[in-house]
Amino acid sequence: MNRPEAMQATHWQLEIRNDIAWLTFDVAGQSANVLSRAALEQFEQHLTNLAERPLKGLIIRSAKPSGFIAGADVREFQEISDPAVAAELARTGQRIFRQLESLPFPSVAAIHGFCLGGGMELALACTYRVLREDPATRLGLPEVRLGIHPGFAGTIRMPLIVGDFIALDLILSGRTVSPKEARAIGLADEIVPERHLLRAAENIVRTNPGARRAPWFKRIPNWKPLRRLVVKYLTKRVAGKAHPDHYPAPYRILELWQQRANEEQEAFSLGELLVSRTSRNLVHVFLIGEDLKRHGRAQAHGIRHVHVIGAGVMGGDIAMWAANKGFRVTLQDQKPEILARALKRAGEFYKKSLKDPRMVQEAMDRLMPDLNGDGLQRADLVIEAIVEKVDAKQALFRDVERRARRDALFASNTSSIPLETIAQGLSDPSRLVGLHFFNPVAKMQLVEIVRGSYSSDEALGRARAFTTALDRLPLDVKSSPGFLVNRILMPYLLEAVKLAEEGVALETIDRAATDFGMPMGPIELGDVVGLDICYSVAQVLAGPLKLDVPALLANLVNEGRLGKKSGRGFYEWDAKGHPQKPKAERNVYAPIAERLILRLLNEAVACLREGVVNQPDAVDAGMVYGTGFAPFLGGPMRYIASLGETGISHSLYRLSQEYGKRFEPDPGWSQTELFRQPSMSDE
Ligand code: NAI
């Protein structure tokens, strides 16, 4: 993609006051600052000019409310297919940041909001880092999440400043740190309230107390005799999380560190990783997530008060999460003890995640038990999460409509009842949408925004915006059985049960799926979700999708073996919540994986053909963010594109000859236009 206008636009403003240069980053035409090639080049020109002048110092800051710098321009990555070009980009950044580091006067990054990736590397090359103290300020090197590692000398500068162990932890995990933690580890020189940020930056330039370096003891892991042991230990830890064939970047990071790599080695390695299949797919996954957020922000939600009805597994967690994100929430259920249980769970979650007692108290204050449903009359949004029964939901919404405000938005968390059915009896069904959260709400990023035939665009837009405000990704789906995610997952789960019925060892089935790249095997997943829930969803979908539900599933449920929650399901579960399974061998299960995955892909294509979602990207977003489908493959549709749809439909046909109708290729496989629809970002 050529963006000549971006090349010409001015991204930096320079001002010199009292012998201090203020360089303000403000990328033209975007809400967040990213380091595009053009922005880097302009930065270099400023540095070259400034180096010649008799200055006391340089202060770099951002004009964007969203933060300092969000990182490199990830969209530019997609245009690079040659490792040499990628390495050259890294060398350019390295050269510019070297120039920044060797200015004849001190430099300081005055940071608020996000300071990530390339932005963090720029800040590392400054003499000082001064941070605004608030929860929105986050610093980190998240490159590993895109299948790469820092390439502007971040792998070299970070250990020098915070020490080797902490640097490796940050680079390998990609996690971000708060201002408090940044100060504790030596990454921040000062943290100050917003009103003092610029003054603090100016003071530090004038006093120039000397750049921070990690004390000697924090560099002990880097001693030659220890280095190998450290790498061995960390490789083992990484291996528990990421398969080297699927995610090579963390292993590369350890190699670079072990070799004490220089900038050239860092650039070369980055070049190789950036054009790898894994990185390209992870970038795809990241960008479709960003597109969902952008879509979500297109409208205002106008919601401050949320009333949640049903305080069970889902309702309790939705209420907890909404209060966590700043909404005022009333939570209603039929019995006080159910509400007490939900509040207790929320309190424990806040304590663990927010830590600061004042913030915990504030979140608890926003979450109010409401046995009589008094909050209903004031709420801007009413979310229903009661039992999955048609009559109950219909009766509830009739009552809700009588008592709620006229402009309140209504949402159901149903996983299987058509919205049109729930809306029967409503005088204005246009205000009802589906907000289908996934379990556990605090972990699963996706929310399906279900469009019933009567749902208005206005209601859908508000629901999307609310979801985005919850820091969740809103995905539009049509109101049809199972929506997108559960529907695609079900044939895959049932095939696993079928394999178990045939006598294949449970751990072997799971291993086949995890070797393929799924985060958890289907048998274990069934146990975790609850076999009763799986069974009831399977029954709902069996008719419309013509699914055969294996008798084994019903038998287990009838015996009360419901999975993790009852201590027994397919597996026996120990007191700590771990399934008891023998170790399975690796890499010998291709035919099992093929059966599991092809059923999933076949259903994905059926959803696209039926217009459950409108684009291949939406299928990918749903399955990666809703189920954890192998992110390094980029999602089911991206995987299909990499293999070619003809080959896969032939394999399905072959399996249908061997195992029967359930493998018959969906008619969508021959509709090539389905696979060629524009990506979300082209909209
Ligand atoms: P649950 O059984 O844990 O909770 C339902 C709660 O609703 C119970 O506490 C019950 O006392 C309450 N309730 C029932 N009728 C009520 C009424 N008229 N007024 C007030 N409260 C009432 O059920 P769960 O699992 O939380 O499911 C709730 C909804 O979420 C269902 O529609 C389900 O299909 C859907 N869902 C469930 C998921 C899961 O993994 N459990 C995932 C996504 C959606």
The percent range for helix content is 40-55%
How far is the N terminus from the C terminus? 15 Å
Assign the structural class, choosing from mainly alpha, mainly beta, alpha/beta, alpha+beta, or little secondary structure. Answer: alpha/beta
Instruction: Please name the CATH architecture of the largest domain.
Output: Alpha-Beta Complex
* Cross-sheet strand order for the largest sheet: 13-12-11-14-15-16-17-18
Q: Domains counted in the coordinates: how many? A: 3
Biggest beta sheet attributes: 8 strands, mixed
The fraction of residues assigned to DSSP E strands is: 5-15%
Tally of separate helices? 29
Low-confidence stretches: 1-7
Computed over alpha carbons, the radius of gyration is 27 Å
CATH class of the largest domain: Alpha Beta
Shape: globular
Can you count the beta strands? 18
CATH topology of the largest domain: 2-enoyl-CoA Hydratase, Chain A, domain 1
Taking all residues together, what is the mean pLDDT? 95
CATH H-level superfamily of the largest domain: 2-enoyl-CoA Hydratase, Chain A, domain 1
List each distinct ligand once: 1,4-dihydronicotinamide adenine dinucleotide
Q: What would your notes on this structure say?
A:
This protein is an alpha/beta fold and 683 residues long. It folds into three domains: 5-275, 2-enoyl-CoA Hydratase, Chain A, domain 1, CATH 3.90.226.10; 301-480, Rossmann fold, CATH 3.40.50.720; 486-612 and 644-682, N-(1-d-carboxylethyl)-l-norvaline Dehydrogenase, domain 2. It contains 29 helices and 18 strands. The strands form three sheets. Strands 13-12-11-14-15-16-17-18 form an eight-stranded mixed sheet, sandwiched between helices. Strands 1-2-3-5-7-10 form a six-stranded mixed sheet, sandwiched between helices. Helix 10 (224-239) runs antiparallel to helix 11 (249-258) and helix 21 (506-516) crosses helix 25 (590-610). The longest helix is centred in the C-terminal third of the chain and has 21 residues, at 590-610. The radius of gyration is 27 Å and the shape is globular. Residues 1-7 have low confidence and may be disordered. The protein binds 1,4-dihydronicotinamide adenine dinucleotide.
